[in-house]
Amino acid sequence: MAYLSKILVVDDSELNRLMLCDILEDKYELLEARNGREALKMVDEHAHDLALILLDYNMPEMNGFELMSLLNERGWKAQIPVIMISAETGADFIDKAYDLGVDDFISRPFNISLVMHRVDNAILLNSKQKYMEHLVDRQIREKEKQSEMLINILSHIVEFRNNELGRHVLNVRTVSEMLLRELREIDPGFTMSDEQIRQIGLASSLHDVGKISIDEKILNKPGRLTAEEFEVIKTHTTIGAQMLEKVPNCSGEPLVQTAIEIARWHHERYDGNGYPDHLIAEQIPLSAQVVSIADVYDALTEERVYKKAIPRKDALEMIATGQCGAFSPKLLECLMRLETKLDQIELLAGTNHTSVDSFMSERTDSAYISEQDMHGLEYEREKYGFYATHSQEIRFEYTKDPSVITFSRLACDKLGLDQVIIDPLHDLRCQIMMDRETKKRLNAELEKVSTAHPDMEMNLALQTGHGRRWFRLIARAIFNEEECTGYFGLLIDIHDEKLDREILEYSANYDSLTGIRNRSCAINLINKQLNAIGEDHMALIMIDLDNFKNANDEFGHQFGDDVLRYFASMIKNNIRSDDIGARIGGDEFLIFLRYHSNLENIVARLHRSLQYEYRGFPVSTSMGVASTETCPPDLKVLYREADKMLYDVKKSGRASYKIKQAENRKEKEEKST
User: Fold this and answer.
1) Is the pLDDT score of 331 beyond 80?
2) Given CA atoms 279, 282, 286, 291 in this order, what sign does their dihedral have?
3) In terms of Cα–Cα distance, which of 430, 433, 407 is closest to 194?
4) Catalytic residues
């Protein structure tokens, strides 16, 4: 069955909706709303499937402009084009409509050809725009991924020569970005975007690139450097900047320019006593200032070949009191405000740099590890690495403070994400992975966890680098006393399994020929609605195709099947999303719907809509209708009475309908006697 794009028709006039449906129903699947409030509910339910909204301006409760404002607030207008229906032609009206994001206008009375052209053009233009945005976004992501990969490779080469544990680059990047975000919190005049902050963080990875040129004997000397050796070390700033300036065809790139600033000036000091150029105060680029503080902080708190690690509080005091040189007062304030968050920086590297060496570094000086213990640890490390590499489960760990999520390597291929993402709640790549409804469900599940019940599970759809896929999320909350500090868990790809299950469910609930619900599914759904009946009434409409036998006899059974399929599509196009349409056998169908009043008008409209000609064969229907206005809310009773009405119609000439009416007193007395 071919997929039809969905259009939402919003108009308080049933006649206008009917006319638009008649024009568009052959090409599109149509949803209807009588006012702005109904439309808003439908947009929330179907937004990701809607290709267009046809919106009347003049409606009760909420007019077209008010609805447009709400669509803009909720972010739907950026995804769904809107054509406004109005007889207004004033310049002020048109200007306001365009300001609110209306894409086009259709005036009444409707011109069939004009309506079709404008609807087709709006949907086609929006599709092309989304495709182009997707291409641009994919190219940007690919470029960023390649840049980050190359920078990480180069920075780790530098660390390898410098005999560092592999965490220095990551720590400097993390602290630099944290400082910039904290500065944005305390200084209203500082408005750097998340993307600019991320770029400085990435460029900071190359701050020590010039050390590639320094002799390893000097780099890794365990004792104090001589004055001559220190002068050699200092040259890594200018050499690093020169190396980056000479990268072919890249010197004009903003990322490279930032990296050059950082490489050259990350050892400058606020009072001019740094090197290589003795810049003072704000002569030093902000990017170099934040990396300078981050570099000093990490150098103090991490162990090096020439020193032991210094406790965090002592390191902060040394920086604050000027023992490591002078820094910007504002950035020092930011560093002190981040004191508790800085204590958790080591979490960033935990999953990617766990090794025997890091395990040994945590042992006391008197601890002894035997050769057998060493082999056991190495064996466990290799085994874990093997399982992690070949498992199809994505492992992750998230800490709230600092806000960081770390993934296993599989996430890079499956989700198109980096292994470490700082501040994922504000990261654009993370945000677009989930739609609003999924985020809402996830937050609801996370709010349920507690120290007594720390585990949660749920299925969710994520927008990955390979399209939208379903995953099973299994997570455990980490608590510090009563406060949740983060989560760790698994994402298991269940997409293929879910599709198989949906195919089985579809086969069990939908008619294989026509694609609409089958008898058993319709019965279950109708009983549920009858059990939850409210103030509105409900109606059961039994439908029979008149003279359908002639279609099979004159044109063949294949043609007859085509007639049934097309008739089923007509039913779908003429009922609301919460109405029930089903094939209950042969050429018999039913519709079950909820209504407030005027059942006669609804049935008359449905009957008109279902009379047509299909490839030369006249299709007409007979209908029998029973409702909870005149019958008890019992499916067996409604079915029996609607069937009686259908029999009366067929006996009296077909191509009509009959609604079960309330019995008068005389009829009741005759029945009782």
Assistant:
1) yes
2) positive
3) 430
4) 587
